[in-house]
Amino acid sequence: MKEIKESLKKKCDEDIQELATSSFHSIFGNSAQDFHWGSNSESCLGRGIAQMYEYALTKDSKYRQAALSTLDYFFGRNATGYCYLTGFGTQRVMNIHHRISAADNIKEPVPGLVAGGANKGQEDAEFVPAYASNIPDESYQDNVGSYVSNEIAINWNAYLVSLLGWIN
């Protein structure tokens, strides 16, 4: 158990060190490796959960603040400006890769769904309009056909629900 706690603390502290040089004051999104399929789930929100575990162990508020930084990123303080939760934000995700939302003849998508997020791989590039950028943290498009950046998955929502529960 001691090794697990030490490993968690080390990873959380490494992420916190990124805050000083982060463009968006976030522990997430400071490396091209952060932006893969479903990056908003385990890489972004999952890091926030790890920070909250460390906060629970130490009661050091820097870990809670670091967790909050992932929510700031997720809710729109990011290179795209999108709030990655459907139904929320000033720049809303509207065209998620979700059959129910695409087929229900309602302009707004089903609210409360986590979009996958920026994906440096752009593996769907041949099937969708050209991505606006090849920069990893900008490799997102709000297009129903973009299954690598705009897909939703229930397990991704679990990360958000868990982190919001911890924060609350």
Can you walk me through this structure?
This protein has 168 residues and is mostly helical. The chain has one domain. The chain contains five helices and no strands. It has helices at 2-17, 40-58, 61-74, 99-103, 154-167. Helix 2 runs parallel beside helix 5 (154-167). The protein is globular. The two termini are 27 Å apart.
Write out key terms for the chains shown.
0% strand; 168 residues; 40% helix; mainly alpha; globular; single chain
Oligomer: single chain
Order of helices and strands: HHHHH
State the secondary-structure class.
mainly alpha
Kindly estimate the percentage of residues that lie in beta strands according to DSSP: under 5%
Annotation, overall tally of beta strands = 0
The domain count comes to 1
Q: Number of helical segments?
A: 5
Instruction: Measure the end-to-end span.
Output: 27 Å
Report the sheet with the most strands, covering strand number, pairing sense and barrel closure.
none
| Inertia-based shape | globular
Rounded mean pLDDT is 96
Radius of gyration: 16 Å
Helix share of residues? 40-55%
Q: pLDDT under 50 segments (min length 5)?
A: none
